[in-house]
Design goal:
With 342 residues, this protein is an all-alpha fold. The protein is built from 14 helices and no strands.
Length: 342
């Protein structure tokens, strides 16, 4: 009973994950770990990075997103499309930032949590997206719902039914609302249609002699996957189904491309200075992801290989950015994490 209680009550993972498996955590929890300065240092650095993504990026993006999603019928199609893109940024910064804080806290205690994100917006297909986004939840639904239902072992029709049931359940896991159900159903539908059209796509590639081993083909896949994912996020963010329909209709009927260039985007809730801070923070995020991608290792390991003055400069810069440019409420409280409600 004590071991079960310890596993369930391990506080870094309680609120929003990553969802721990007993097989993975039990040895680390029950055998204990001696204090390690290196682990503590890496854990604090990761928590600081998570705070940067949450307070500087996600909470700043939420100002614009909340303003537009709260009154979608007052904005043109270009504005609501931009808000949908910014929501992708907010959701990633908020959720992955919270996971980084949890992972860093666990690391201080000598516990390594499973990876939960792997550059999800660089996915080349919807199945690839779910191998990169909330990995622990995706694997949980796969192991405890999709495979027990029969997985892909009982023919294509049964496979598609199992896939749709799994993603509908994933939507309900986030909340008992039609918006979440449709969001989950869309991701299930995307994968079913993609699987059905695979022979057609393969034939088109052969007929037109399309190269699939070049960067342009991969960028096209990434862009198409990102558009599909962003469209589904509209239902995820909307307060109700009616609001989601209004939002989509504005995008479809009120498009004004010139709004991207005439400066009116700054009337959506973020002033020019605040928007510039968001762009700068996104540049830092992309730079860190580029380091991780090119070097194939974690940023804390990369920092450890640098001179001490460089390590301190990076940490102090992050602290300064969080303190000065973090978005705080009237009582200096940070906004609640999005996934706290699920």
């Amino acid at each position: 009973i004590g071991k079960l209680a310890l596993f369930i009550s391990f506080f870094p993972t309680i609120v929003q994950g990553p969802i721990g498996r007993f097989q993975h955590l039990s040895k680390q929890l029950f055998e204990g770990n001696d204090f390690s300065y290196e682990r503590t240092k890496f854990g604090v650095q990761l928590m600081l990075w998570g705070a940067f993504k949450k307070l500087v990026i996600a909470d700043r993006a939420s100002v614009l997103v909340d303003n537009v999603f709260g009154f979608p019928d007052t904005f043109g199609g270009t504005y609501v499309a931009v808000a949908a893109l910014v929501y992708c940024i907010q959701l990633y910064g908020d959720f992955s930032g919270g996971i980084d804080i949890a992972t860093g806290a666990a690391q201080i205690f000598g516990v390594d949590l499973e990876k939960n994100f792997e550059r999800p917006y660089l996915a080349t297909s919807i199945p690839d997206f779910w191998r990169r986004w909330h990995i622990s939840l995706s694997s949980w639904f796969r192991d405890y719902l999709y495979i027990p239902l029969g997985g892909n072992r009982k023919g294509k029709v049964r496979k598609y039914c199992n896939l749709m049931l799994t993603f509908l359940a994933s939507g309900l896991w986030h909340g008992a609302a039609w918006t979440y159900v449709i969001w989950g159903g869309l991701h299930g539908l995307y994968q079913i249609i993609g699987d059905l059209l695979h022979p057609v796509r393969k034939k088109i590639v052969e007929i037109f002699d399309v190269r699939t081993d070049c960067i342009s083909f991969k960028l096209t896949q990434i862009a198409f996957t990102f558009v599909l994912t962003t469209f589904a996020w509209i239902f995820f963010r909307a307060d109700n189904l009616g609001q989601a329909c209004v939002y989509i209709s504005r995008i479809a009927t009120r498009v004004n491309p010139w709004a991207l260039f005439n400066g009116t985007l700054y009337t959506m809730g973020l002033e020019q200075f605040e928007a510039n801070v968001l762009f700068f923070a996104l540049f830092i995020l992309l730079l860190v992801d580029l380091v991780r991608y090119r070097l194939g290792r974690r940023v804390d390991v990369f920092l450890q290989e640098q001179n001490i003055w460089f390590r301190w400069l990076v940490c102090l810069l992050l602290i300064l950015l969080v303190v000065v440019y973090g978005k705080y409420g009237p009582d200096y409280d940070a906004a609640q994490f999005i996934y706290f409600q699920f």
